[in-house]
Specification:
Length: 378
């Protein structure tokens, strides 16, 4: 009976004690969360209850396993397994706690500061710092797991002795990876590009969706994802529409006939912008920027608070203006002239000008009569 009760008490007691401590800790965190709603720390710490219970259970079983007298022939293997579970759960718990602390600090910073650009910069830095912390904790945990095996402890001296050669070989082999990692740190702390920035890379317009130590993801306007190495943004020029202030000025072009009512178009542009919610009211204008033998190129300048709104203003102005011209001033739309040119005022029909004859290689009327024959006069 003792051989049956002892392992049952040890194992069952460890599991029950783990569940009780985990439940009590979770209740304390819930009360702290309700008592301090201004900070999300206590609610975020509850995400670590599973690794927390694993640490408790593995620790209790590892400390009391010798008293259970269970599977003595596999005592070493079971003890090492519990140690590995304890190390892994502790690393998992450490990452969850670090993530909760960092996320709380970021949320507090985002509430205090209203500058969206600074908030996006801190968010980028925080995400990269969390990845670095997770990588460091993971490497330390794996190293601790390996050191539990005697063979790895015996090989430690030789590994340290060859660390210099291994580092050189790894540096040459992973040159591009290391350059991307350093570029990731440069982007995070150099404030070149941040998560949420609107950028134009290789002719593609989109929003930065994710930044890691080695690559960057841009979500385009048509919901495609472009993944690029972060070293691209440190070695090649790109457009960042969100750097500084997000306010933008957009342009809309039309080709209209020479007789287009420009003053009426300016008034219509003003009316269209007043009815467009995306226009920020800062400025607008309409000017003739170029001319061709058959059309005028008219450009409208509009402003908006960010890239999304300036796109909305541009398409709205373009559509409304073309519709207004086609309904109210159809003669102002571009067309191909197939009729004779209009004569200058005061010139009788059928009598070409002196300049027109000269341009066609002819001569003035008087000179033509002098050279005509007398028979033609009769």
């Amino acid at each position: 009976m003792e051989n049956l009760l002892r392992p049952l008490i040890v194992v069952g007691g460890s599991v029950v004690l783990t569940l009780l401590i985990g439940w009590a800790t979770d209740r304390l965190l819930c009360k702290a969360d309700h008592r301090h709603p201004e900070t999300p720390l206590w609610g975020l710490l509850r995400r670590g209850r599973i690794p927390y219970q694993l640490v408790l259970c593995a620790g209790l079983l590892r400390g009391s396993y010798d008293q259970a007298d269970l599977l003595q022939e596999h005592k070493v293997a079971l003890g090492r397994t519990l140690t590995l579970v304890l190390i892994g759960a502790a690393a998992w718990l450490a990452i969850r706690i670090a993530a909760a602390v960092v996320e709380t600090s970021y949320s507090r910073y985002a509430r205090v500061h209203r500058d969206a650009a600074r908030v996006r910069r801190v968010r980028t830095q925080v995400s990269l710092i969390m990845r670095v912390v997770s990588a460091v904790v993971g490497v330390v945990a794996v190293a601790a797991m390996l050191l539990t095996f005697p063979a790895f402890r015996a090989a430690g001296a030789s590994l340290l002795a060859s660390a210099g050669i291994i580092g050189i070989v790894a540096g040459v082999a992973a040159q591009s990876t290391l350059s991307n990692m350093f570029a990731g740190f440069q982007i995070a702390f150099g404030d070149m590009v941040r998560i949420g920035d609107t950028v134009v890379v290789d002719g593609e317009w989109g929003t930065v969706e994710d930044i890691t130590l080695t690559f960057l993801t841009v979500r385009t306007w048509d919901e495609r994802r472009i993944t690029m190495p972060v070293s691209y943004f440190t070695s090649k020029p790109f457009e960042n529409w969100s750097r500084g202030t997000p306010q933008m000025t957009g342009t809309v072009y039309w080709h209209v006939d020479h007789s287009a009512p420009l003053d009426a178009m300016r008034d219509k542009l003003r009316d269209v912008l007043r009815e467009c919610p995306a226009w920020d009211g800062r400025a607008y204008g309409l000017d003739v920027t170029d001319t061709t033998p058959s059309t005028l190129q008219v450009r409208a300048l509009v402003t908006a608070k960010d890239a999304d709104d300036v796109w909305t203003v541009r398409v709205t102005v373009r559509e409304r203006m073309i519709r207004w011209l086609s309904e109210e001033h159809p003669y102002a739309l571009p067309r191909v002239n197939t009729a004779d040119a209009m004569l200058p005022p005061g010139r009788p029909n059928g009598v070409p000008s002196r300049d027109g004859l000269a341009s066609r290689g002819g001569m003035p009327p008087r000179q033509r009569r002098v050279h005509e024959s007398p028979r033609a006069d009769r």
